[in-house]
Specification:
318 residues
């Protein structure tokens, strides 16, 4: 099969997975979460042009189905392109960059800068949402508060009332943009890990595997995190809302940096699989591990824990 045909097929499959969300079932949402996977596989195996071609094809399919059989809105194809095809095309393009070092070896685009790009797309999306709601009462925070209120009002008759409903809704609206960006970012990263596993299995990846334990953030990221955190505490009202959500988005980079420390620690241990299994079980089931991992990522920037834990020798981690 020609690369162009494979790219088109991957784009069509991504579009169908994306549209499965409209089914409304749990399975539909799971398939929707995997929507970027085919495009990511095409990009890692064939290059950024495959993502662009597949993304255009998928956007057209979503638009046609949306207009012909669904609500007729153009929001669906816009979101498919804006949350999947466009960021993936930039990420894959940068992931394929390399340069020759003075000793003659090939140096590939670092994983840390790819993590910064993911967060950068999240900040861009948040900024666009702020601009689009400037004319609304209360801005983006007001729009989200009213949206959550309307959802609560649609609860079935007889449902248990929420104590302190107004305070709960206010709190959720404060962090909702950052939470949505975090969920989207994790979706991209998880699909990237799955796609890399698939193309590596068939030996079709255009670049060496991206190992989480090799992730290192740029030196300016702690300052950005500190400034946004201080703004979230000090700044009032709307500016505090912006700073808080920027802090949540930036914190995701340090979450990945903290995970890199954990993987570097387990990398050459005989019980690596057991260590990582127990860690991720606690990470998913308990509330505090994500915050601890973010703190670990911040410490990594200052004292270089990952370098201390890393050891030479082959490994199979991705």
């Amino acid at each position: 099969m020609s690369p162009a045909l494979i790219a088109v097929g991957c784009g069509a499959l991504s579009a169908l997975l994306y549209l499965s969300v409209v089914v409304g079932s749990v399975g539909g949402f799971i398939f929707g979460y995997l929507a970027p996977l085919p495009l990511t596989i095409a990009g890692l195996a064939l290059g950024p042009f495959a993502v662009i071609l597949g993304g255009v094809c998928g956007t057209i399919i979503v638009a046609v189905i949306n207009v012909a059989w669904l609500d007729g809105s153009w929001l669906g194809p816009f979101l498919f392109a804006a949350t999947g095809a466009l960021p993936l095309s930039f990420l894959i393009r940068n992931a394929m960059l390399s340069r020759t070092t003075p000793d003659g070896s090939l140096e590939w685009y670092p994983p840390g800068l790819l993590a910064v790009m993911v967060s950068g797309f999240g900040v861009l999306g948040f900024a666009i949402a702020l601009l689009l709601t400037l004319d609304e009462v209360g801005g983006l925070h007001g729009v989200l508060t009213r949206l959550l209120l309307s959802i609560i009002r649609q609860a079935p008759i007889g449902a248990e009332p929420i104590p302190n409903r107004h305070d709960v809704i206010e709190g959720l609206a404060q962090i909702l943009p950052g939470a949505v960006v975090a969920s989207w970012s994790v979706m991209l990263v998880l699909n990237g890990v799955l796609a890399q596993s698939v193309v590596a299995r068939f030996n079709r990846c255009l670049r060496p595997p991206i190992r989480l334990s090799d992730l290192e953030l740029p030196g300016w990221t702690p300052l950005a995190f500190a400034l946004s955190s201080a703004g979230a505490v000090i700044l009032p009202d709307d500016w505090g809302f912006v700073a808080l959500n920027l802090t949540l988005i930036i914190a995701l980079m340090f979450l990945f940096a903290g995970l890199a420390v954990v993987h570097a620690y387990a990398r050459n241990r005989p019980t690596k699989v057991l260590i990582l299994t127990l860690f991720y079980i606690s990470f998913i089931l308990l509330a505090w591990p994500p915050f601890a991992v973010v703190g670990l990522g911040v410490l990594e920037q200052w004292i270089g824990l990952r370098r201390r834990f890393s050891a030479s020798g082959p490994d199979q981690e991705i």
